[in-house]
Amino acid sequence: MASTSHTASASLPSSPRSWKYDVFLSFRGVDTRKGITFELFDRLQHKRGIKTFMDDQDLPAGAAISPTLLAAIEESRFAIVVFCRNYASSTWCLEELVKICQCMEDENRILPLFYHVDPSDIRYQKRSFEEAFTKHVKSNRHESKKVQEWRDALAKVANSSGWHTQNYKTERELADAIVDFVCSIVQPIEIIMGDFEVFEATREAMEKVMKALEDDKVSTVGVYGMGGVGKTTMVKHVGDQARKNGIFHYVIMAVMSQSPDLTEIQHTLAELLGIDLQGKSQKGRASRLNKEIMRKNKILIILDDIWERIELSSIGIPSYKELQKCNSKVLVTTRIQNVCHAMECQEMITLNILSKEDSWTLFMRNARSSFETTIFRDVARKVARECCGLPIALIAVAKALGDKDLREWKKAAQRLNKSQTANLDDKGDASQCIKLSYDYLKDEDCKTCFLVCSLFPEDYDIPIEDLFRYAIGKGVFRDADTIEEARETLHMVVTYLKNSSLLLNSDKELCVKMHDVIRDTTMKIALSEDGHGFLVKAGCGLEDWPHQLHEGYSAVSLIGNEIRTVPEELEDILSQYHQKCFQSCIDLKNFTCNVGFGTGGVKLKEEEEKPMLALMS
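Now predict its structure.
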């Protein structure tokens, strides 16, 4: 049965074919060319960017359909058939309709508009349609087989879901409904997807997001994870799939960034909805956008890269309660878990780093090399491992090394092991991404604690108590009156850094971990922040003190080495400390020394402030 109001019954063609036209308009020129048909063509083609075919001339009675017209039907993704009272009197229209049915028989791609005509009149050829067929039969110019083809085509399309003029107050309202629906299934302004491959970690997060989007009780979903893990790419793909599956008619997306430009965000969302916000104030734009979103149905609004709570009303996005009325939802991405809470996300989903095998697959695809020899493949795997499952690092390094020879790959492996970029072609995209997260940390003690984490070896379970001692050596928590107060603050800082996707949970109790790529960037930041940087020779198997000790580093880490003597310079420093600070470290020859030092520290009420040095066995 033909529906009286169009719903999302049209499905996307299953093949990835490229179409010349999005929409083919079938109509009887004499009746509707200058009215509703032209209105649809103008709005779709010129105002919404939908590639629409509209024949610009009327054929004389009995004339055959041109090859150009037939080709246009074959090359169109959808067809809108404008049925009017005299539609069947035109054999050209009937032939056109048969061709449309032949080309689009497998999918719901034919969209009928019942323009001041009852669908049942078309389905059963009554009234004006009956009169038209009586004339066709009496003319004896058409074979009975041909006439039956016309009847079958009319019956088929009249049984499709479409639009009926009697359900709309004005033709403008009717045109709005048609254009909105066509745009929702064609989506002229595509969210740029780029290459996308679903890996295990991605699939797990995608399934959770899709489940949340399908839940009628959920109006807002949050996706969080470290910078460069692939949140933006993943939600773009989810949005595209949700639209294709009919969960949403529209998918619109705007990037928020650390300093949101509300005007730019409003214009981006408005453009994707096909509306013009020019010449309005910010409040005026917000009001217009709000009304447009509420007027439509099933919109997924993706707000990417949010750093702190933002009032959706300031953009023009309705409240979550209002969005539920029009079956719309908000999907946000962030690096900071607390932002999901602040945005009142009902579902919060983590996107994790890739597994070793998935990392290798992504790396090979971007390096565009088969690594034919075993030696070459082993070196390449070593390079890939240094990226530790972070997609942005895997892609950047692979592309930088893709066309290089084995010698260059070996050099790159050495450089990455020393926390340097792979080569000159590696633009450091991963580092820039992570540096952005660091810059957003507003508290200096928090920044320092983050930098101190890089003093530990790669993939290390960092004891929070050891981190506390190192941080004290770097002079943090000066406002604390007692050691316990400073220790409690450190635990708060660690939680904040984990929520900001800068630190990871550890399998060990009272420990945290730092992703290796983040650690590499952190050491670079330490150098740029204070001009000295850190000397990190952790886990290198050293038996003697490194010669760089004289180069003015602000912190030194020798964790996991076999150094059992203290150089004279360090003994001089030790002699300046109060004896009780080192009661457990008297015989250093019997200890593997883990060293971090700096100046400053917690001001204790019971004793004078002194520089502090952490020596841990």
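Residues 483-499 form the longest helix (17 residues).
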